[in-house]
């Protein structure tokens, strides 16, 4: 009897950035490379066929997703993106933007029939704005302040292909933290995948990551005490267990 096809994982990490004329545009992302390698290793142990790609341009990132449309896939497709970004955008190492809607369009049912029925799971470590989350006092029961004007991100959500879950490191409009030890978000993902929580249904696993970042993580150094709140959106039609042994 033939062996079932392996599920695939695409991990893209950008650490060094420059423009077409060679100027440095964004700061180097210390800690991101080691973190991506750790995630790739654990996904391999969880029986994923992992493609780990370092410092790819905007065009190369799009091409990587185009290539997935021609591959044989197993039960799941997982992608982790770690880069600089802003709302609805991640940046290539050439400092050029890649719209998330473009990535989702490439993997849509029309463009990528091979992935139509396969759950597609994204973890995106990138800023979504410039605001800093100062945290909240959780025991306070007074009325909340009026929210600031938030960026319109519904177009991104509406473009997500069927059978897809996307988890972001932070809320719309806010920064995502990274230091030499790694990011709050992907370190929490690593912790969950290395523990018994990996057997949970995906929505429960993502909620566990939310809890881990919200209650166990805060920024250090210049932004000492600042917090981060991951969030996720899903249009999956059933519970899935992508990381259960």
UniProtKB/TrEMBL annotation:
Region forming the signal peptide: none
Caspase family p10 domain span: 182-244
Start and end residues of each Caspase family p20 domain: 5-131
GO biological process, alphabetically ordered: proteolysis
A GO term for molecular function: cysteine-type endopeptidase activity
One protein family per Pfam: Peptidase_C14
InterPro entries cross-referenced by the UniProt entry: Caspase-like_dom_sf (IPR029030), Caspase-related_regulators (IPR052039), Pept_C14_caspase (IPR011600), Pept_C14_p10 (IPR002138), Pept_C14_p20 (IPR001309), Pept_C14A (IPR015917)
Organism domain of life: Eukaryota
Matches recorded under Gene3D superfamilies: 3.40.50.1460
PANTHER family: CASPASE 14, APOPTOSIS-RELATED CYSTEINE PEPTIDASE, MUCOSA ASSOCIATED LYMPHOID TISSUE LYMPHOMA TRANSLOCATION PROTEIN 1/PARACASPASE
Similarity annotation: Belongs to the peptidase C14A family.
Protein name according to UniProt: Caspase-3
Gene label: CASP3_0
């Amino acid at each position: 009897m033939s062996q079932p096809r392996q599920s695939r994982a695409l991990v893209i990490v950008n650490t060094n950035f420059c423009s077409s004329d060679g100027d440095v545009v964004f700061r180097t992302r210390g800690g991101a490379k080691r973190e991506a390698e750790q995630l790739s290793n654990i996904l391999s142990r969880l029986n994923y066929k992992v493609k780990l790609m370092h410092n790819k341009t905007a065009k190369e990132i799009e091409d990587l997703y185009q290539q997935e449309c021609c591959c044989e896939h197993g039960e799941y497709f997982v992608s982790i993106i770690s880069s600089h970004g802003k709302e609805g955008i991640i940046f290539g190492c050439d400092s050029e933007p890649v719209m998330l809607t473009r990535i989702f369009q490439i993997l849509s049912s029309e463009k990528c029939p091979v992935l139509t029925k396969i759950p597609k799971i994204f973890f995106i470590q990138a800023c979504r704005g410039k605001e800093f989350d100062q945290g909240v006092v959780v025991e306070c029961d007074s009325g909340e302040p009026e929210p600031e004007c938030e960026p319109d991100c519904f177009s991104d959500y509406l473009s997500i292909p069927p059978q897809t879950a996307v988890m972001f490191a932070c809320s719309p409009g806010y920064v995502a933290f990274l230091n030499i030890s790694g990011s709050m978000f992907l370190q929490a993902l690593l912790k969950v995948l290395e523990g018994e929580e990996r057997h949970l249904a995906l929505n429960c696993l993502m909620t566990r990551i939310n809890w881990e970042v919200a209650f166990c993580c805060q920024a250090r150094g210049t932004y000492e005490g600042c917090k981060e709140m991951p969030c996720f959106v899903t249009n999956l039609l059933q519970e899935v267990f992508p990381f259960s042994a």
